[in-house]
């Protein structure tokens, strides 16, 4: 996939596909879109097909609950089927699966860093870009922290059940999850800053005067760059 499209173009195609399918109401077109997305999904995800299909199955478990509730309505005769509800449930099922399969195919082999770089290529607000990047990273942090805490609880012989101790342990799990995730989030933010993370490359205002030789700040002459003047006042060089 990297040989055909750059990451930022793949992201743009995925977003456009999602918007396009969201506005279609014809079932035939949605079925054709789902078929095309499924073929592309199989081609792009053939090396990790099992894990990817597991994600699709989890989505369709949610779709199952939609089919258990949406196609029915309550009338004077009791609970009866609703044609409008069946049509809407069909639309939701086709759109959700087609969008998930196509987006999964487009984002194949893309890490969070690749996705962050792809988002930064577009003229979006700086705060939105930073929020998007940190959200991607912090979701992974929450997942890792939750797995570690659950493993530690199982190692201490904890078993879930419908009793008071289970609810107490789960409440403590949520509290520890928030505390540890917050601590790791702060560590991640420090690591991002240490690696020179900015919302946009243009926000870096440090400049150098390559053709000019360095001069002492206390010589009565102004340095050629503001960054050198600030560095001289602080007693350190950039």
TrEMBL record:
<feature type="transmembrane region" description="Helical">
    <location>
        <begin position="49"/>
        <end position="72"/>
    </location>
</feature>
<protein>
    <submittedName>
        <fullName>Transmembrane component NikQ of energizing module of nickel ECF transporter</fullName>
    </submittedName>
</protein>
<feature type="transmembrane region" description="Helical">
    <location>
        <begin position="84"/>
        <end position="108"/>
    </location>
</feature>
<keyword id="KW-1133">Transmembrane helix</keyword>
<feature type="region of interest" description="Disordered">
    <location>
        <begin position="209"/>
        <end position="238"/>
    </location>
</feature>
<dbReference type="Pfam" id="PF02361">
    <property type="entry name" value="CbiQ"/>
</dbReference>
<comment type="similarity">
    <text>Belongs to the CbiQ family.</text>
</comment>
<dbReference type="InterPro" id="IPR003339">
    <property type="entry name" value="ABC/ECF_trnsptr_transmembrane"/>
</dbReference>
<keyword id="KW-0472">Membrane</keyword>
<feature type="compositionally biased region" description="Polar residues">
    <location>
        <begin position="216"/>
        <end position="238"/>
    </location>
</feature>
<dbReference type="InterPro" id="IPR051611">
    <property type="entry name" value="ECF_transporter_component"/>
</dbReference>
<keyword id="KW-1003">Cell membrane</keyword>
<keyword id="KW-0812">Transmembrane</keyword>
<dbReference type="GO" id="GO:0005886">
    <property type="term" value="C:plasma membrane"/>
</dbReference>
